[in-house]
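Help wanted!
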Amino acid sequence: MAAEVKTKLSKNLLRMKFMQRGLDSQTKKQLEEEEKKIISEEHWYLDLPDLKEKESYIIEERSFMPCEDLLYGRMSFKGFNPEIEKLMIQMNSKCKEKEIEVDDKMEADVSDEEMARRYETLVGTIGKKFMRKRDQRVLQDEDGGEDGSSNIRPSKKAKKKFLKPQD
Amino acid sequence: MAAESGVAAEACVGQVVLPGDLLLLPCYPDEDGERLRLGAGTAPRGRLLCGPGLRRCGAGLMVIKCGLLRHRPAGSGGAAGGVYWVDSQQKRYVPVKGDHVIGIVTAKAGDVFKLDVGGSEQASLSYLAFEGATKRNRPNVQVGDLIYGQFLVANKDMEPEMVCIDSSGRSTGMGIIGQDGFLFKVSLGLIRKLLAPKCEIIQELSQLYPFELVLGMNGRIWVKAKTVQQTLIIVNILEACEYMTAEQRKQALAKLSGN
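Answered by r_m:
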């Protein structure tokens, strides 16, 4: 039934994508050019010579930031807000690209010695948690002396008691 | 109307200029490509930055605000070719893209907050413009909150838009300003003076008490110190230091630190 004779297909149909897959490149190019011609005839344009844009060496700027090298607007002093102080150093050194002296001695809530003391006790308590049962009993015997079974109870109680952190 | 012949820009640096003055630039090339006489120390022509108060006009710069003409020579990394601008004083803020300002939330309209930044229009701030904000995780912003953000869009034809994150998505200190503290308004010139790299006022104040300070380019300052009294002292100093000389300021601070 598919005759060899090609039925007359309209131009629009031929321009559709699925019809063009079988075409060779030359015919495709021709069709594209025809399309461009159609489009360009419909478009209006000014019949003036090309104006060469003057290369300008002046850039207009409405903000004061690049002119005066202003600092970042959020500031904190004497350790009132430590995050902002860190941010200040970061932002201002980005702008300036020079090292700003950092005051290392900021007010700390807990002194170094207290931290060391707390960690000492903390390491002991947590360490006991991971010891095996035998080692725990040995430890208790060392601490409390040999009392037999009654030794276990008080040692358990001692283990369960909450150790308040020294503040 | 005969146009006034311009004055060389370099000659006016540090002097008062008025709107309408035309400033000529020394090494601006002619249409033909001929160079005018070059000054002795002119660096290779980079892009000249024409700052606030000036506008490009033909062969030079036209002044549009009255004030002192300032100049920063080339080679500072920011603008090759130097910067000219007019140092003027005003109280009314005009939104400029990239400026960090303090805004007050006036309304919540669906997904957008309306902020009062002191300009002619209210700025809009989307709830997604905060760090870590998603559709499910909304920022906790109420009417009356203070927000520190920067302008994303700010021109005379459109409503200004603000954001609280930078281009990489980090907040870098922007966002809701915390509880307490005191907000007050000063002139724009004072803000620029306080934000200058080596500001004596800020250095002297930082020796007094621990406190926190947020300066918005729209003339708003937010201060927070440990007690209300300290906060008010800092507020009074900042308001008054615009019109005090350096000695008067040092005297006032000496009295305070003595107390």
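OP: Thanks! One thing I noticed: Strands of chain A lie at 58-60, 74-77.
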